[in-house]
């Protein structure tokens, strides 16, 4: 009997499952409802409910760290728990925050608002202006990237009558003054790029309709997006306009409310920030200019006014190495903070410019192992006094939130997260696998000391967009996998940003297939080292990691016992036509160009899946309100695999956006469903290991 395995590599556009791309289509929703019922009937029983409630209770703990940013002397936080699943937007003072049980002023109860207005509201951020009580709140329906913008007064704790209001769209707003916004929005005819983001910046004055707001900056529809930034770090306000061509390339212009006046003479693939009269840039490629050659991934600094006058005599503030890379940089009270990974060890330096040159110092008192993040406490650089926050953790040590006063004080613990699982007898070790081309691929293993030869292993990785992944404290895996005798593994694949531009570039375009080889090499290394067997390896990946997991299914099925694929990108033939897909061409390539489809088809698992193979069981899960990665990817892959007779399960809750749920209970349920599936399919009962 023949099996319909369309679409295929020989006929990539012969797709019988296109109807599943209709997000709210009646037939598609019938498919989703039927699949959800089957999956929950199989994996949503008493054990699921027990673990979901156990995990949700951890997420809802009153002693979890409330992460904050400071604006106008207040620390702001969004707090979610069992009583307030959507969250409380609230604020307090630093002095109060230092106490064991701070007193908070509730500004907005999101659950109350959602109930009152009959809408599925979630809080998605606030845009403020120094010295003003007025903010623009972004409210999302069910977690989508598209938001509704509404003006809110923090003093009266109410929405402003006849204030700024913008219906749902992918939008952001910057305050120019009390009565004027710079609006970047895809709302309106012709206002969206092919990626679905804002094509223009509009000057929107109070009391006028958005349709009357003049366009002051715009780009062509094939660019990714445009946005603006109002800079108050100088006495006379200045405005930056950014035309983002693709994920890695930008054109930055200086201007006024009338629009851009001067485009900075910089390569498009440079990341830059300014503060006062100082300019900091990080080139992605070697840059030769005015008799100087600057290395890719270096950190360069100079006077902005000197740069605008024609000088290119930068001071080199950071030099990269083969495994030493700058992860990020930001300004705080006139000092440039550099976040560095040196052989995956965290290092932080402050560079201070002056008329006589730059001085530098290493932040003291922070660990040089584990996971450390440092950022400015203040949301607005113009308000900063240099106070920094640091978050310190590792797979077995819960996070500590620390304050470094003015960036030079010894770290003081503000809040300590609770231990949420028993780590007795567990160890963290670092290893390297050798990939198909000889490259060393680092990975971190957490679990019982020694090797058993049959450990139940949970593997995960990302490998894309220059994003470095690090071994953080994970309550979900700790409580439901490690505490019960399992082992976890996190791999640092090419495509990520752990080792500078060479690492993500090696895993882009045609190299994405190499990134997948890296993950398979780690799985093989676990077996080689005697940790486990292939049938006892469960692997999970989401978003870009969805390409990874489905390629393990079709390219390396013999190395895994079960796979969990979440909010995934899978169909590489049509991804640019679905929601924000066109914005990722710089990472993957353009399937409409024959020469680029040649490499894209090598890792389009949707087209490479064929009947008669020994594929491991897979659960594919997405959310209906994901307006970034289209849920059609997950739906179509599950449908095709099932039609070919494979064990492929599917789950799609109605809300969650590009995430696992709109509240702690939904997020817990999404994860636990995956754990239940993976454990059963690798033949592991809790506590057996």
TrEMBL record:
InterPro entries from the UniProt entry: AB_hydrolase_fold, Pept_S9A_N, Peptidase_S9_cat, Peptidase_S9A, Prolyl_oligopep/macrocyclase
Full protein name: Peptidase
Pfam families (UniProt xref): Peptidase_S9, Peptidase_S9_N
MF terms in GO: oligopeptidase activity; serine-type endopeptidase activity
SUPFAM superfamilies hit by this protein: alpha/beta-Hydrolases, Peptidase/esterase 'gauge' domain
Keyword Protease recorded: yes
Entry keyword Heme: no
Taxonomy, superkingdom: Bacteria
PANTHER family, per database record: PROLYL ENDOPEPTIDASE (PTHR42881)
């Amino acid at each position: 009997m023949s099996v319909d395995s369309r679409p295929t590599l020989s006929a990539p556009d012969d797709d019988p499952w296109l109807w599943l791309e209709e997000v709210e289509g009646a037939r598609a929703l019938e498919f989703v409802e039927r699949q959800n019922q089957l999956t929950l009937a199989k994996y949503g029983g008493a054990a699921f409910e027990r673990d979901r409630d156990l995990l949700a209770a951890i997420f809802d703990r009153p002693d979890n760290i409330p992460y904050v940013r400071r604006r106008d002397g207040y620390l702001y936080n969004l707090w979610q728990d069992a009583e307030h699943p959507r969250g409380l937007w609230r604020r307090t003072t630093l002095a109060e925050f230092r106490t064991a049980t701070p007193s908070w002023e509730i500004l907005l109860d999101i659950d109350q608002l959602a109930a009152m207005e009959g809408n599925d509201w979630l809080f998605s951020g606030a845009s403020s202006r120094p010295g003003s009580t007025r903010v623009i709140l972004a409210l999302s329906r069910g977690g989508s990237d598209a938001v509704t913008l509404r003006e809110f007064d923090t003093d009266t704790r109410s929405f402003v009558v006849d204030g700024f209001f913008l219906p749902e769209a992918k939008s952001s707003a910057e305050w120019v003054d009390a009565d004027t916004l710079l609006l970047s929005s895809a709302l309106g005819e012709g206002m969206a790029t092919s990626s679905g983001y804002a094509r223009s910046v509009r000057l929107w004055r109070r009391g006028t309709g958005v349709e009357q707001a003049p366009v002051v900056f715009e780009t062509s529809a094939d660019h990714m997006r445009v946005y603006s930034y109002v800079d108050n770090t100088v006495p006379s306000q200045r405005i930056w306009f950014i035309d983002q061509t693709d994920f890695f390339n930008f054109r930055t212009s200086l201007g006024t409310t009338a629009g851009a006046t001067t485009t900075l003479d910089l390569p498009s693939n440079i990341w830059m920030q300014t503060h006062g009269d100082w300019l900091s840039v990080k080139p992605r490629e070697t840059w030769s200019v005015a008799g100087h050659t600057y290395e890719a991934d270096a950190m360069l600094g100079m006077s902005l006014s000197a740069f605008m006058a024609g000088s290119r005599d930068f001071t080199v503030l950071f030099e990269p190495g083969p495994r030493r890379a700058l992860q990020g940089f930001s300004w705080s009270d006139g000092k440039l903070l550099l976040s560095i990974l040196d052989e995956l060890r965290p290092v932080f330096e402050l560079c201070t410019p002056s008329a006589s040159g730059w001085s530098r110092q290493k932040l003291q008192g922070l660990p040089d192992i584990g996971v450390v993040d440092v950022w400015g406490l203040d949301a607005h650089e113009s308000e900063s006094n240099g106070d920094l926050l640091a978050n310190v953790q590792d797979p077995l040590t819960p996070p500590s939130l620390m304050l470094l006063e003015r960036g030079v004080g010894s770290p003081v613990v503000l809040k300590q997260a609770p231990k949420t699982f028993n780590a007795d007898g567990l160890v963290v070790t670092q290893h390297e696998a050798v990939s198909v081309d000889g490259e060393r691929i680092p990975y971190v293993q957490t679990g019982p000391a020694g090797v058993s030869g049959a450990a139940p292993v949970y593997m995960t990785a990302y490998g894309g967009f220059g994003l470095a992944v690090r071994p953080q404290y994970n309550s979900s895996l700790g409580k439901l996998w490690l505490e019960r005798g399992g082992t976890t593994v996190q791999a640092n694949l090419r495509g990520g940003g752990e080792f500078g531009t060479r690492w993500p570039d090696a895993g882009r375009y045609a190299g994405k297939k190499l990134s997948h080889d890296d993950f398979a090499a780690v799985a093989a290394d676990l077996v080689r080292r005697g940790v486990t067997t292939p049938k006892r390896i469960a692997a999970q990946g989401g978003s870009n990691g969805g390409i990874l997991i489905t390629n393990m299914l079709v390219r390396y099925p013999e190395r895994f016992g079960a796979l969990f694929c979440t909010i995934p990108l899978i169909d590489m033939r049509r991804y640019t036509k679905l929601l924000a897909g066109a914005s990722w061409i710089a990472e993957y390539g353009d399937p409409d160009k024959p020469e680029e489809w040649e490499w894209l088809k090598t890792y389009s698992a949707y087209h490479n899946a064929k009947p008669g193979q020994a594929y491991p069981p897979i659960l594919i899960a997405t959310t209906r309100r994901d307006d970034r990665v289209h849920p059609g990817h997950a739906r179509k892959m599950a449908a095709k695999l099932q039609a070919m007779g494979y064990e492929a399960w599917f789950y799609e809750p109605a809300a969650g956006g590009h995430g696992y749920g709109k509240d702690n209970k939904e997020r817990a349920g999404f994860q636990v469903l995956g754990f239940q599936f993976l454990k059963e399919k690798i033949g592991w009962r809790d506590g057996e290991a």
